[in-house]
């Protein structure tokens, strides 16, 4: 399609998405960004958050991600993600239980390193919930 770009979202265990799209939106380490056709070449780090692809038909496809890198070159977006879970595949109850478990362990954490690891786990669980519920 003349006004589209090719988007690929790849994680270590699978290709989560590959197709033509109108836009690609990601949680950049320096702030959220959107890529449209004709975007300048770019390499960006991403953080925990929701990636959204708007397809050529206008549908929005969302993924919970744990960070990674995005390369934009010649209307081709490639995201190398630590994780990329489609919103429809997220088990909401499991994510809610993970968030609650992290909150309990956080209360008992004794070192700054332990707190940081548990906070990151809690943030990933919260992101999965927000992505699944469409409250991004």
Account of the 3D structure:
By secondary structure, the chain is an alpha+beta fold. It is 29% helix and 45% strand. The chain has a 5-stranded mixed β-barrel. Helix 1 runs antiparallel to helix 2. The protein is elongated, with a radius of gyration of 16 Å. It starts with a strand and ends with a helix. 26% of the residues are buried.
Which percent bin holds the helix content? 25-40%
Structural shape? elongated
Main pleated sheet: 5 strands, mixed, barrel
Low-confidence stretches: none
Total strand segments: 7
Order of helices and strands: EEEEEEEHH
The secondary-structure class comes to alpha+beta
What is the CA–CA distance across the termini?
A: 28 Å
Mean pLDDT comes to 94
Beta fraction: 35-45%
SS field, number of helical segments: 2
Radius of gyration: 16 Å
Biggest sheet: strands side by side, in what order? 1-2-4-5-6
Key features of this structure:
alpha+beta, 136 residues, 5-stranded mixed barrel, 2 helices, elongated, 7 strands
Compact summary:
The protein is an alpha+beta fold and 136 residues long. The protein contains 2 helices and 7 strands. Helix 1 runs antiparallel to helix 2.
How is the topology of this model organized?
Blueprint: E1 5-11, E2 14-26, E3 33-36, E4 42-55, E5 60-73, E6 76-81, E7 84-86, H1 92-108, H2 112-133
Parallel strand pairs: 1-6
Antiparallel strand pairs: 1-2, 2-3, 2-4, 4-5, 5-6, 5-7
């Amino acid at each position: 399609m003349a006004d589209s770009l090719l988007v690929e979202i790849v994680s270590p265990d699978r290709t989560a998405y590959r197709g033509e799209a109108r836009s690609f939106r990601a949680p950049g380490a320096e702030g959220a960004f959107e890529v449209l056709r004709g975007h300048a070449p770019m390499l960006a780090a991403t953080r925990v958050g929701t990636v959204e692809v708007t397809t050529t038909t206008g549908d929005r496809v969302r993924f919970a991600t744990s960070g990674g890198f995005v390369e934009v070159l010649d209307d081709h977006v490639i995201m190398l993600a630590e994780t990329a879970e489609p919103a429809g595949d997220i088990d909401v109850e499991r994510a809610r239980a993970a968030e609650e478990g992290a909150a309990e362990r956080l209360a008992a954490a004794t070192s700054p390193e332990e707190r940081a690891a548990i906070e990151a786990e809690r943030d990933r669980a919260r992101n999965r919930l927000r992505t699944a519920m469409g409250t991004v």
